[in-house]
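Weekly puzzle thread! Below is a chain. First person to post its structure in token form gets bragging rights.
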Amino acid sequence: MLRSLRFRLPSLLLSGLLLAAAVTSVIAAQLFAEHARRQVVQQLRQQARGIAQLYADEALRTVDERRTAPAFAAAQLEVATGSRIYYVGVPIFPGQESGLRGLARRYVNWDALTEGKVEELSFVPPDQRHTFFAVAQPLKLGEQTFGAIVVAQESSMLRSEAVSLLKLLAASFGGGLLVVLLLAWYLTRRIVRPVVALSHATDEVAAGNYAVTVPSLRGGGEIHHLSERFGEMARRLGETEALERNFLMTVTHELRTPLTAIRGHVDALREGLADDPELRAASLDVVASEAGRLERLVGDILDLAKLDAHRFTLVDEEVDLADLLESAHGAFLEEARRRRIDFPIALGGRPNVVTDGDRVHQIVLNLLTNAFRWTPDGGRIALGLEERAGAVEITVEDTGSGIPSDEQERVFRPFFTRGGGTGLGLAIARELAVALGGRLSLQSEPGSGSRFALALPLRPVRQ
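Winning reply:
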């Protein structure tokens, strides 16, 4: 359970959210604390400047008018500002009580104050136990600094504001956590379910069941692509298994038929049933013919295996393609005459090509064998040769039944047969064409016959 994607994906999302929330909260708290500190400093500076100006003006009037201490008192100012007010320096109103709390000079930088500088400081007042944050504003009469007004607020006020912020962040985080939980649940259903379905389908395919139902996903994305490719893979594996079964059945039949014929004639010869020299010669001809048939079948299987393993050896030689095609044409003349098939050959020149002549001959024979298999008696098969810029094209056209569009690519796959044969001829022909640096293409329509075209370069181009 803990190792499943259903658990890991939501856990990853939640872990990322928790980490992001923790980092965000720390940064936000620090930023807020700094912002609150700047706000308090600004506020304390304004208060200290105003109060210092107020006392300085009253001090001047007291000296000039011989008045008593000002009517306002520090207690009322503290209530109005919400801050504690202290005084450092010589008495503001000599012989009179100002009502300000006194503060020793050791709490402040007196030298900086006498130079007219405003000082920010933290200290524990004599009558308090907690730390206060304060601003000291120089108090002047003319150009002479004789004291400073210190306006202070308890540092715990900043902490309380930070705690309030953290509470808001916690509430926001709780809401965000709920949203992420819902999102994780949705993503789990959206992503994990098709992945789990694909996993089950993989188990079915591994068990040999290729007719699996692959989940269909709407839209694009990697999961959609994976689902489509997996479905295609399962279909291809199913087709391959069916082709292999069909191949085994076909090969078994193709091997058994000539072997049965050979065994029958050999037994007849051994038992003396063919004493007549003509009968004996006919039996030996049958044995030789069927042995050649077996040899061709085994050769096709070996050729395909070598091509698949890329262990096929090709020989480069100068080949007269016209002579090669005339030789292949002559090999089928008797069958064409016997079946009354029109079998013309059209040579558009006599190009010399550097290639493997035996393999080109093998390709042409495979194409002609396929054409004669599917062309009815009285039909037509045309063998042609054309020379084009930098290449030659050999064509085999027939008037057979044609090949449906959905099978035109499959006919080049090993073991695929539409009835008769082993399904290796066209597969070997295409692989050989590619190995020779060329290509083998097909044009066909059901009921209108087929046209195979082998394009080869004039000089070797190995792939």
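Puzzle host: Confirmed. Bonus trivia for everyone else. The chain has ten helices and twelve strands.
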